[in-house]
Amino acid sequence: MTSPVNPAEPASVTAHQAELWKPVLLRAAAALAFGAVTVFWAAPSVAGMGFAGGLYLLATGAVLLWGIPLAGLRRDVAPGRTMSAAASILIGAGVTLLILQGSLLFGVIAALGIGLAGAAELYLGLRFRRRHTLARDWVTSGFVGLGTAAALPFFIPLGPHALLGVAGGGAIISGVLWILAGLSLRHDARTATAKAVN
């Protein structure tokens, strides 16, 4: 899913990108773990929904913050500030869902957090198209986030099971995307290291 920073050099991996696979795979693990919980939890309570959703958003935001410098984004310029803002919004939404509970609150707060983070990723993906390793993944993840956010409010009347199902479905899709991206980045980093040694 990932594309090279420089299309003329498919195996080129810079120093910060050699470690980028770690936060990408950690993000995938958080998304897939949350998705699995939503699939197998037959009758979640309102409190359980808030706890599970809050932890997922909090973990995703924390991993995004960790990955900003590894993605080559500086926090003092617009792209880095955009990703920092998205990560902070996810962390804030996660903490809110951990503290406050209710189907309406979950539908609104989770939709805002996931939607704004999706919009930020879509912006970064389009801005760095063909120039950043994660550009295509950001675009896809952005669309998934925006779609999940748009759907969540419609499921508020159906309660925790439906809300977790929608959020978990988006998490599973993005988790599969990010695990493929992380494995590709890890492979590229190992290939570049092997070429440097030889």
Overall description:
- The chain has helices at residues 21-40, 46-70, 78-99, 103-127, 135-151, 160-197.
- The chain is globular and about 55 Å long.
- 43% of the residues are buried.
- The chain has 6 helices and no strands.
- By secondary structure, the protein is an all-alpha fold.
Provide a brief overview of the structure.
By secondary structure, this protein is mainly alpha-helical. It has helices spanning 21-40, 46-70, 78-99, 103-127, 135-151, 160-197.
Keywords:
198 residues, mainly alpha, single chain
Low-confidence stretches are 1-13
Question: What percent strand?
Answer: under 5%
**Shape category:** globular
Number of helices: 6
Question: What percent of the residues sit in helical stretches (DSSP H or I)?
Answer: over 70%
The total beta strand count reads 0
Biggest sheet descriptor: none
Helix/sheet category: mainly alpha
The average pLDDT is 88
